[in-house]
Amino acid sequence: MSTEHLLGDIGAVLTAFIASEDHPRREAEAHLQRLAVEQPAEVLLVLAQVGAQGVGGFQLDHRLLALILLKRMAFKPLEGLFLNPQSQKPAAPFDVVRETTRGRIETVICAGIKDEMDVRMRKGLGACAANWAHECSIRHRPLLPLPPVLLELTASPHPFHRFTPFQLLDLTPTLLVDSVRDPIPAEQLAQMLQAGLNDPSVDVRVEAMKAVRSVLMEGVTGSERSEIGANLVLHSFETLRNLPPALVSHALIPLVDLASAHPGLFTTSLNPILSSLLPLLAPPAQETNLPPYQFSPYPPHNMTFDEWEDISNPATEIILSLMELRPSHMSEWENGRAVKEMIGLLLARQVATFGNDSQEWIETKDLDEEADEYPVLAEESLSRLSMALGGELVLPTLSQQVQALLQQEDWRCRFAAISGISSIAEGCLDELQTGLREVLAMLSSAAKDPHPRVRYEFLQCLGQLSADLEGALQENFADDVLQISLALLEDPIMRVRSHSAASLTNFFQEASPRHFEKYLEPVVCGLLNLYQSQVLYAQDQALATLATVATAAEKMFTPFYRNIMDLCFMILSNPAITDVAQRKLQGRAMECATLLGMAVGKNMFGTDAVRLSQLMITIQNQIVDADDPRSSYLMDAWSNVCQSLGAAFEPFLQYVVPNLLKTASYKPSASLGETGDEHEDDTGGAHTYEIDQKIMAFESLTTYAFQMRGKFAPWLAPCMQLSLNELSCSFSEDVREAAAFLVPGLLQVAKDSKVWMDEPYNLTQVFQQLVNVIVKTNDIGYTALLYKSFTDSLHVISAPFPVGLTTQLLKSGHAVLHTIAQTRADREAQEPYMDESDKEIYLEEQNEEEACLTQLRKALEMVIKVGDSNVGTEQGALANGLREELQGALDMVKEIKKRGMKGDGEKRFG
Which of these three, 719, 747, 775, is where a domain ends? Predict the structure, then answer.
């Protein structure tokens, strides 16, 4: 088969692809596709020859592009190319060409891998060969010529040749199992990987570390991993010590994956592993101006901060993964040394992250932008550490550091000390509740600290403790917290004043009136004074906190209602504003006003609700920008008004529901919607806002359906059709779930309004769609939710289920039960070969199965219950053996619940 006649065409295509002009690229793409449909064998072969062997004398970029095109085109179904012309189902060129052609292409690729001397070309060849091997494996067609070449290359005198076998093992970890007649024993595979870890070339060593990761995660069985894994991990850390700093981060990343998936491989070598990792966490001296405080026994690194972060971040992640997944091993290592040093190192990182100059922080007006840039890794790491190990070890160690840091002159040390307590609050709940008095006494001086950022962080800590300690702060220290917060509401620095209000929000969310009754007036006055500052972010926070205070105070807030409602009316009376921050303030005013109305009740709010609704309608009609922040506030505000007014909200539905239907009907572009479930994350940033709005719209419709019931009838039909359609939404799990929650509410509307249900077809359509989606979904969590929606819907109508649909429900239920039963049987068989991380993953999956079985049981029981009703008995809803079949399915549920893996101390119950 000659390919010379195609060289000109392929050369022109490659040149057009490399060029920057868009039109020639599109024409070249169309031309290449036509060629691939007309001459698939010749096109694949010539791409391989150009890329792997340099046929045609093309430049390096052209050759690399040829390999990319070969990798992409060979296995992609093409319109107009059919394996069976009768079926007209598009086929991939690889599946259409003859086996002899495939063999020629593979010979070309293997020859290129064996002989190519250019390093860049070798990486392209490796990626192409790995993909080819992977696709062959999927088709159960081993790529037999490749493994001998790779084994030969491991002994090559050229490092760029020795690099390739490990590149391919990283990309296709089962290569030496799937593409050989006799799989290489695990011990021999381990020897090959160890040779790579000890290679004279640093590039080969790093690539071998990547291969170790992939092989241990995907290329061996559980028993083989236990046999060779721990030793390979130990050798990887020995390799790590001898790498130049520029490559350390690249070598650490594979170990991050291994630590999170198979932590047991690390525990037998904790001494060399932690001795390698902990020093990497010490911040550098460059660019940080570290204070003369000794956070840890490790000296600072001599590198830039960015270079250090590239190394420190993965090292931190490995240690945290081991603490989360092997807490006893990590806490016991050298009598808690890892925990003690880790806390000091994370505090040092927090200090090193901030510059000494706070003027920009004080003067900033855009808090959202600053929040995006705030360095959170140290705080998040301390939180994870405390959640993993608990407060018994963490709190005393941190407290020692905090006491010392609070005495330092550098404000960053005092800041880090307080943020450390904030970070560990949730994980050290019991210990903090017990020792809260001592902790507050230790931190109390920070309320009057000379540096505003320290005062700010003290308020942050109060807010965090208010939220995390389950009311302990409110119950025992309400006076102290409120007095300090009121004082800091008058702070000379606006950032501190605003944050005092934010801290109060957390306090009031967990407070009862008896905690704050005597402080209610000064708190409200202080927040109103804050609003008068004319600083937008402070005004926004003042309104948010006032809304929270009103919600907590309820009727006690009545004396302040009028002034604050009038303030909200004033803010909302200018709908034509264009500034984004001002629009957000209007949104906050809507939130505040409606929550205020809910707090004081319908009697006081009723008259104002009409005026407020008119203002909201005016604003709603002014919104033209898709990303106007008032849109989301409007949805919540209308829901709040509805909950306040109840049935009296009916006149406003006409202004609310049409917009919600429009928002809930949003669909991304066709290419996005066609990606399927496995690509639903591809919705990307451009569509995230619209999808979030769509979900909120469904949630609001659910509120109106349940609140308004029969009065929602005018919108029943379009809402029901939309909900049933979105049960199969391909681009968002949250949309599917929101649609499933809405269906029972709409049936309640239908039942109360005595319309729509008169037509049997309507009900049949609802339940038919629910059953159809149950049959099609492979997501066990969503299946459980669909069964719940089904049960709730059947409970609402309280009518017998059509016999035909009962049969379909049973059929789908049996399919679900058989799938879960088989999955659990497989797990039981595999359990002896699993390590603990595998077991944790499978136990999580099993918990989802338990929820699904429970919801399926409830659905079957509900079918029996309505079938046993008088109407059901008259209609014979459970006749002809249906009752026995339903009971049989229930018995299956009970038996399957007894099967499966067992967690620590767990017994299986029916």
Answer: 747
State how far the alpha carbon of 166 is from the alpha carbons of 71, 161, 162, 257, 873, in Å. 19, 10, 8, 17, 69
Task: Please indicate, yes or no, whether residues 705 and 829 belong to a single structural domain of this protein.
Answer: no
Residue 686 has pLDDT above 90, yes or no: no
List own/partner pairs for 110-118 with CB under 8 A and 24 or more apart: 110/145, 110/146, 110/149, 111/52, 111/53, 112/51, 112/52, 112/53, 113/52, 113/146, 113/149, 113/150, 113/153, 113/164, 114/149, 114/152, 114/153, 116/52, 117/158, 117/160, 118/60
Residue 674 has pLDDT above 50, yes or no: no
- Pair 255, 276 in one domain: no
201 & 292 share domain: no
The answer as to whether 439 is a domain residue is no
Which residues span the domain enclosing 734?
665-671+687-747
Q: Are 819 and 774 in contact (CB under 8 A)?
A: no
Together in a domain, 276 and 233: no
Size (the chain), residues: 910
- The stretch 115-125 carries a mean pLDDT of 95
Q: Amino acid identity, residue 452?
A: P
Mean pLDDT of 137-166: 95
Question: Per residue in 750-794, pLDDT tens?
Answer: 999 988 777 778 888 999 999 999 999 989 999 999 999 999 999
Residue 685 has a pLDDT of 44
Q: Are residues 251 and 275 in the same domain?
A: no
For residue 906, the model assigns a pLDDT of 41
* Secondary structure element (H or E) that encloses residue 78, with its range: strand 78-82
The token pair that represents 215 in the structure block: 């092989």
Shared-domain flag, residues 306 and 407: yes
Pick the closest to residue 505 from 487, 529, 528, 523 (CA basis): 523
Rounded distance between C-alpha atoms, residue 106 and residue 118, angstroms: 20
Q: Sign (positive/negative) of CA torsion 388, 393, 396, 401?
A: negative
Note the helical H segments in 139-280: 146-153, 159-171, 175-178, 186-197, 202-214, 222-241, 245-261, 264-267, 270-277
CB of 205 closer than 8 Å to CB of 199: yes
My answer on whether 775 and 878 are in the same domain is yes
If we measure between CA atoms, which residue out of 265, 242, 245, 246 comes closest to residue 255? 265
Residue 271's Cβ-count burial label (10 Å; 0-12, 13-18, 19+) is exposed
Return the residue matching tokens 């705030």.
Answer: 374
The total of structural domains in the chain comes to 5
Q: Is residue 427 part of a domain?
A: yes
CA distances from 76 to 70, 79, 164, 678, 758 (A): 10, 10, 25, 17, 50
Q: Which residue has the higher pLDDT, 4 or 773?
A: 773
Average pLDDT over residues 123-139: 95
The encoded tokens of residue 789 equal 């929606």
CA distance 348 to 757: 67
**For position 683, what pLDDT does the model report?**
43
Per-residue model confidence (pLDDT) at position 684:
42
Say what the pLDDT of residue 225 is: 93
Identify the CA nearest to 588 among candidates 641, 634, 543, 621: 543
Residue 359 has pLDDT above 60, yes or no: yes
Taking only the tens place, the pLDDT of each residue in 560-606 is: 999 999 999 999 998 678 889 999 999 999 999 999 999 999 999 99
Residue 490 within any structural domain of the chain: no
**Over 90: is that where the pLDDT of 669 sits?**
no
What percentage of the chain exceeds 70 in pLDDT? 96
For residues 740 and 786, the answer to whether their CB atoms sit within 8 Å is: yes
pLDDT of 893 > 80? The answer is: yes
Residue where a domain stops, chosen among 434, 467, 501: 434
pLDDT at 247: 96
The pLDDT mean for the chain works out to 92
The reply to whether 330 and 346 lie within a common domain is yes
The answer to whether position 607 is within a domain reads yes
Query: Quick one: how far is CA 458 from the chain centroid?
Result: 30
What is each CA distance from 478 to 471, 521, 554, 591, 799, in whole angstroms?
A: 10, 15, 19, 26, 53
